UniProtKB/TrEMBL annotation:
GO cellular component: cytosol
Entry keyword annotation includes DNA-binding: yes
NCBIfam families xrefs: rrf2_super (TIGR00738)
Protein's name according to its UniProt entry: Rrf2 family transcriptional regulator
TM ranges: none
Source organism (scientific name): Cerasicoccus arenae
Cross-referenced InterPro entries: TR_Rrf2-type_CS, Tscrpt_reg_Rrf2, WH-like_DNA-bd_sf, WH_DNA-bd_sf
Cited Gene3D superfamilies: Winged helix-like DNA-binding domain superfamily/Winged helix DNA-binding domain (1.10.10.10)
Annotated keywords: DNA-binding
Length: 137
């Protein structure tokens, strides 16, 4: 299975946003980019897509930044992948040829399993356990 780098970056950054959730401050793009080693210019695009998809919120200004719209355990990998790569779960294999319908059935089963598993894993499951405490100044 090969997921896009964009999906991977989105999941990594959301794991960081999960660490900020419920705290007094919003996450700044520079901090997110540094913590997850994601290019900040690319991260801007990803964060915009996540915001437009309702996964995160943002606020401008000195006290601005980014935050999850829901608790980390309420945001599944499926929710994120559906926003970042909508075609990922679209599976319409051809039923042409003598084996087409059997191949399509098999691929649809695999796709359904992948979707089901993606719905079971949340951002909470991706959050680093030993990253140290968050300090707010």
């Amino acid at each position: 299975m090969k997921l896009s780098l964009k999906v991977e970056y989105a999941l990594r950054v959301l794991a960081q946003l999960g660490r900020y959730h419920g705290g007094p401050q919003l996450a700044h793009i520079e901090d997110l980019a540094e913590a997850e080693d994601v290019p900040s210019n690319y991260l801007v695009q990803i964060l915009n897509e996540l915001r437009n998809g309702g996964v995160i919120t943002s606020r401008r200004g000195k006290q601005g930044g980014y935050a999850l719209t829901n608790e980390p355990e309420a945001v599944s990998l499926f929710d994120v992948m559906r926003v970042i790569d909508p075609g990922l779960f679209a599976n319409e294999p051809s039923r042409a040829g003598q084996s087409g319908s059997l191949v399509a059935e098999a691929l649809n089963k695999i796709g359904a399993s992948f979707e089901e598993r993606a719905k079971e894993i949340s951002i909470r499951d991706l959050m680093p356990r030993d990253a140290g405490p968050m300090y707010y100044i």
